[in-house]
């Protein structure tokens, strides 16, 4: 192959490589847990960090609703090599277990998650270490929740509450666990009820 032919051959390869490269895009996610809270501070932080307005996805709880349309849209938009910015760790998931599940889901897609205020990123070798540590924290939290669940059941039994299918029974146990700091996701898991049921019970209690 002549020098000239080699030049054009290599140039063609480089052109193909450039065509296939996926340029990193930065997305943002913001969430508040009640309809009374504002997203403004989180959105401002994301914009200051360089996220374009049309790439910021948000979720704002309303009543007992468990839908997260913003997160679902974000899941569909991101591709391998992209980065998601979140203001704080607790803004990604409703609890540690939920957050870890989402981080692992994005990691499997090749998408990194960076938490602005906490200075934590899930990309690179250090990122994998962060995921491992957070997973350990989630496991420890789950063990504490199991202990609280057992305590809640024992306390309910002492009050004369019999466990069964009736909603009033579930309601008392849910409220007892919630008062002990157990998250809605784990309450639903431990009591084998829908998470929407947990939110409805808590919402009814606040309204009463």
Listing every helix as H and every strand as E from the N terminus to the C terminus, the arrangement reads HEHEHEHEEHHHH
Poorly predicted regions: 13-20
Highest-level CATH class of the largest domain: Alpha Beta
The overall pLDDT average reads: 79
- Radius of gyration, in Å, reads 23 Å
Number of strands: 5
- The domain tally reads 2
Helical/strand content category? alpha/beta
Helicity level: 55-70%
CATH topology title of the largest domain: Rossmann fold
Looking at the overall shape, the CATH architecture of the largest domain is 3-Layer(aba) Sandwich
> What amount of the residues lies in strands?
5-15%
**What is the CATH superfamily label of the largest domain?**
Resolvase, N-terminal catalytic domain
- What spatial order of strands do you see in the largest sheet? 2-1-3-4-5
Distance between the termini: 84 Å
Let me know the largest β-sheet. Answer: 5 strands, mixed
Number of helices: 8
Active site: 33
InterPro entries: Homeodomain-like_sf, Recombinase_CS, Resolv_N, Resolvase-like_N_sf, Resolvase_HTH_dom, SSR_resolvase
Domain Resolvase/invertase-type recombinase catalytic: 25-160
GO molecular function, one term: DNA binding
In a nutshell, what does this entry contain?
With 208 residues, this protein is of the alpha/beta class.
Structure overview:
This is Transposon Tn3 resolvase. The chain starts with a helix and ends with a helix. A five-stranded mixed sheet has the order 2-1-3-4-5, with helices on both faces. The protein has eight helices and five strands; from the N terminus they run αβαβαβαββαααα. Helix 4 runs antiparallel to helix 5 (124-158), helix 5 packs across helix 6 and helix 7 (184-191) crosses helix 8. The model is unreliable at 13-20 (pLDDT under 50). The chain folds into two domains: 21-122, 3-Layer(aba) Sandwich (Rossmann fold), CATH 3.40.50.1390; 142-207, Arc Repressor Mutant, subunit A (Orthogonal Bundle), CATH 1.10.10. It is globular. The protein is of the alpha/beta class and 208 residues long. 57% of the residues lie in helices and 11% in strands. Helix 4 (96-108) links the parallel strand 3 (83-86) and strand 4.
